[in-house]
């Protein structure tokens, strides 16, 4: 299978804070990006007059309720430009109320998505806890989420994000192995794998194979952090261009290619001090060169 076909490019709207929806769609069309990930979040009132930032104020202020109301219209605009709504990345965990989950499910369905990101319940990070009991509860919450998602034709996906209980291949497998891949899957988040330490691509894809839904693609590298009062240096990371990341991206592409099915690459480049449009263009160019070289 041609890798450009097997791994279509997408973008998360989180990385395009300076652009409105029409500007985002026009840029995606220009760069041959076909999979669009919505960002349904509420910008706090005290940030609405701030400068646009990835995780703060956005020119395209899409709240969860607005996605429910405007999703069909947004979906038509995407389709007219040759794109599809693919997923949503709300700030949403599996232990939310049914009412909250349903709002987000309705929005994702209205926007034409096939999946919705829902994070694992938080765990106590400052003390030891009963992991088997936590895992049982987390699986129960995801069972509820999948049951709620099924009538909307949506798949639930877990982002392997630093700091959550699915950050590594083994931890994620503990949760997803109780589910069919059609109802629950994982997002391989390459920038966050840098924060977690070395994660081997062949092992990761082997452990999670049939549950791999898509990939978050961006750059991150380890840097020296600050010293504490006893002289111990804390670890740190810094977002960077994809070509400078702490993971060897070609090895990850090789491993994912062995799945021999479609796995979208969703770009989320947060390189500091660059506008979102330039970050998207740079990463799209870099990954396209790589995919073409391996398809030749």
UniProtKB/TrEMBL annotation:
<dbReference type="InterPro" id="IPR013022">
    <property type="entry name" value="Xyl_isomerase-like_TIM-brl"/>
</dbReference>
<dbReference type="InterPro" id="IPR036237">
    <property type="entry name" value="Xyl_isomerase-like_sf"/>
</dbReference>
<dbReference type="GO" id="GO:0016853">
    <property type="term" value="F:isomerase activity"/>
</dbReference>
<keyword id="KW-0413">Isomerase</keyword>
<dbReference type="Pfam" id="PF01261">
    <property type="entry name" value="AP_endonuc_2"/>
</dbReference>
<feature type="domain" description="Xylose isomerase-like TIM barrel">
    <location>
        <begin position="58"/>
        <end position="270"/>
    </location>
</feature>
<protein>
    <submittedName>
        <fullName>Sugar phosphate isomerase/epimerase family protein</fullName>
    </submittedName>
</protein>
<dbReference type="InterPro" id="IPR050312">
    <property type="entry name" value="IolE/XylAMocC-like"/>
</dbReference>
